[in-house]
Amino acid sequence: MKAIEKIKELKAKSAEELKAHKIDLLKEQFNLRMQKGTGQLTKNHMFKNIRRDIARINTILSEKQKVGN
């Protein structure tokens, strides 16, 4: 999925849905760190993808917060 499509999809969600999705991504990021520590990680590119998705969510949440005020 391209970045623009991800952004459009995320902007369509409510703030509560975004927060829940962010928590899921943080859990997945933690799991990847554990896999890396035990030597089981084969998809190193997932770190970058998850980190960027979390940043996108944070940006959209701050935009929604500014519009709401």
Explain this structure.
This protein is mainly α. The protein has helices at residues 3-11, 15-38, 45-68. Helix 2 packs antiparallel against helix 3 (45-68). The radius of gyration is 14 Å and the shape is elongated. The termini are far apart.
Protein traits:
single chain, about 70 residues, mainly alpha, 3 helices, elongated, Ribosomal_uL29_CS, Large ribosomal subunit protein uL29, ribonucleoprotein, Ribosomal_uL29, structural constituent of ribosome
Give the helices and strands as they follow along the chain: HHH
The gyration radius over C-alpha positions equals: 14 Å
What structural category characterises the helix and strand content? mainly alpha
Distance between the termini: 32 Å
Query: Globular, elongated, flat, extended or rod-shaped: what is the shape?
Result: elongated
Total beta-strand segments = 0
Beta fraction: under 5%
State the helicity in percent bands: over 70%
Number of helices: 3
Task: Please specify the SSE layout and strand pairing.
Blueprint: H1 3-11, H2 15-38, H3 45-68
Organism: Cysteiniphilum litorale
Keywords: Ribonucleoprotein, Ribosomal protein
Protein name: Large ribosomal subunit protein uL29
